Amino acid sequence: MTFAFFAEVLHILWPASKHKKTVVLVTHNLEEAVMLCDGIAAMSAAPSVVKRIVAVGIPRPRNFRSMRDPDFGRCMEQIWNLLRYEVDKTMKESRSRPEPESDFRRKASYDGVE
Length: 114
What we know:
Largest sheet: 2 strands, antiparallel
Helix content: 40-55%
Structural class: mainly alpha
Distance between the termini: 44 Å
Shape: elongated
Number of strands: 2
Strand content: 5-15%
């Protein structure tokens, strides 16, 4: 519900503002990005670089009905296709690394408990 409220408030404030501002939104949520942004910078995995900037061509004001628009789905699919390789690569790398020792196990070993 927080996202819905935030989105509605932003869509009211932006057009009403006499001082046009640029807002940088950092999110991992594709729906949120497409709903709120006019352009989305799709980033690579570390070291992060901008892979591509995707223009969101969905008319404003956007609301939850906008999410049913076929252009909304196409935009999300385009971004996901840019990110899919990065997500898969990161998941594979994280599975191949040894799991870091938890704080609990580290503290227990200091206390002489194994």
